[in-house]
Every structure is written in C-alpha cells, then in structure tokens.
Design a protein that fits this description.
Length: 122
C-alpha cells in the first residue's frame, strides 16, 4: 500500500453566468454593427469623387446617395465637382443638380460638402 494524500475529486466545470453570456453576445453584435456601418459608408456621398457615378437611394439608413459604377443601370448622376467645407449650392453651375451632405458631430464642428452633379445619359 502506498501512502500519501488522497487525490482531490475533480472540480466541476465552471458554468458561465447568464450575464457573461449576454455580455459576450452584446460585444459580438456591437462589432458586427460597427463593421456594417463602416462598410456601408464606403459607398456613400462622403466617399464620392469627381467622375464617380451615384444612385439616389430611398433608404433612411444611409445618406441618400450611393456610389455605383457608371456602367451600372442604377447610375443616375455623375459627380462633376466636390466642394468640402460648405453647404452653399451656388458653388455648382446654375441649373446643375447638386447634393448637400452635412455630418453632425457631437464633440467637433459639423462638416458639410456639396456635390455638383450631371444627369447620366442612358
């Protein structure tokens, strides 16, 4: 017979608390929301440049314009000029459509930009 201390019984597996599980799920959801917002902002008015074509969206979740390929049937307007730091549409030629994008910031000054547009001929 061998001597020694008895082997302690194995510890039961730790159960995760409901709060811990919900926190984990919340963190995953938050990361997904941020990723979706970032990816969707890549094709909106604030990323438009002169020469890009845009489509007017009816979604209330975006800023109203989506950058699309000029060969796409959704292309409605072509951006002729981008004017940052203003919301004055008179910077565009008279009679030419324009689009104003204003971003409200909580801790910094609001930003604005004007896109001068022409209708895409189809």
């Amino acid at each position: 017979m061998q001597g020694g201390a008895p082997v302690p019984p194995p510890q039961p597996a730790k159960r995760r608390s409901v709060k811990g599980i919900l926190r984990g799920i919340g963190a995953v959801v938050a990361v997904i929301v941020v990723a979706v917002a970032w990816f969707s902002s890549q094709d909106n008015a604030s990323s438009a440049e002169a020469g890009d074509c845009v489509h007017k969206s009816s979604s209330s979740l975006d800023d109203g314009l989506e950058v699309v390929d000029c060969s796409d049937t959704k292309a409605q307007y072509k951006v002729t000029a981008v004017h940052n730091g203003t919301s004055d549409t008179s910077v565009c030629p008279a009679g030419e459509p324009s689009y104003v994008k204003t971003t409200h910031r909580r801790r910094r000054a609001d930003t604005a930009m004007v896109l001068c547009l022409t209708t895409v001929k189809k």
